[in-house]
Structure formats: C-alpha cells, structure tokens
What we know:
It is globular and about 65 Å long. By secondary structure, it is mainly α. The longest helix has 19 residues. The protein starts with a helix and ends with a helix. It contains 14 helices and no strands. The protein has a domain of 83 residues: Serine Threonine Protein Phosphatase 5, Tetratricopeptide repeat (Alpha Horseshoe), CATH 1.25.40.
Amino acid sequence: xxxxxxxxxxxxxxxxxxxxxxxxxxxxxxxxxxxxxxxxxxxxxxxxxxxxxxxxxxxxxxxxxxxxxxxxxxxxxxxxxxxxxxxxxxxxxxxxxxxxxxxxxxxxxxxxxxxxxxxxxxxxxxxxxxxxxxxxxxxxxxxxxxxxxxxxxxxxxxxxxxxxxxxxxxxxxxxxxxxxxxxxxxxxxxxxxxxxxxxxxxxxxxxxxxxxxxxxxxxxxxxxxxxxxxxxxxxxxxxxxxxxxxxxxx
Length: 250
C-alpha cells in the first residue's frame, strides 16, 4: 500500500508540474526568447558551446533587439576566439542598454582585452561611478585587470581593493589580488588571498599555478608539489600545465 500511495503522490506531483508549464502557444515571442536566452547562457557556463549557440540564435530570432541576448552572443564568440564577431555583439548590446552596468562592464573589459585601453578604461570608470550600478565591484575589477595588462600594478591593486571593499568575497578580485601579491613578492599575502578565494570558488588553472609558485617561494615544496599535481590532473591541457610539464622534462 505504501508503494501505491507513493506512486499516486508522484503522479500527482508530475501532473501539477506539467500544469505549471506554459502552453507554447500561450506565450509571447519575447517570453520564448527569454527562455532560450536562459538555456543558452546556462549551456555557455557548462561549456556546451554548440547547443548554447543554437539556443542564443533562436532567442535572437525571436527578439532581435534584446541587449542581454546580444551580450551573451558576445560572450560566446569571445569564447571561441572570434573577436570581431564578439566585438560587434558587445557593441550593439552596449548601445541598446546604456544604463545596464553589467553589459557596459563586459564591453569595457573586452575593449581592454583587445588593447583599446583608453576607451575601455573610460567606459569602465563611467560604469563604476554610475548611480544605477548595483555591482560596482565588477567594473572596479575589470578596471584593475585593464591596468594590470598595462603593467601598472599600483593602479591595478587600487581598483582590486576597491572591488573587495564593496564585495569582500568577489572571486575574480580575490584571484587578481593573489596574483598581484605574488608579483610584489608578498607571498604570505598571496597565500591569504588564495585561501579567501578558495572559500568561495574552486581552483582554476591560474589559481593552482599561482598557489604552486607561492608555496615554492615560501619553501613549502611538498605543498607546492601537491598543487602542481592538482594542476596536471585537473587542467592537463592548460598553458600552466604545459609550463609545469616543460619544467619537469628539463
């Protein structure tokens, strides 16, 4: 009897769930576009690029002037290293949503990545200062990265610290400060930022590389070897793993 009752309950739950799903004929194109955008963005996060592209293209065909879709397509094309296409989508998204801080920050970051530092910094500064920006730490971090790319480590650190003052557990800023501290040979500080980073995020190839170098600089060769092995196991195709393999072979 318990099994039958459980079966009835499960059937009831499934029936209720199905009843909550909208009839495809009852929702607007903009709502369909939003559903495809959400799925496409999720597939991007999972690295399923082909299906992400399909969902995002479908979304765009349903809602041609949606800046969020344009922005996500910019992310997709940047991910596959088609930077001209990425720039076109980012630029259109930024024009469509001049008050969207996330989109503006993405475009500013992209400009800096392409070496258009003055334009990128100007846009990011404007975005960070905007009263409409509810996440100023994102623009501050992107500003820091922009200065870091120009080897202006003092300005970079200033902006990373501004980001962490606004959002103390923002992973990209913590990882950036780990790198800055290592470059300044402040190895204990680098370890501290790494520990803070790991409390809110998982290791990347870059964080494992920095952790390896930091512990080696501190004389903790056993721990450095552990991090090095994690890097080789978890990210075998990364540039950092190749550097370790090259060092070992030499």
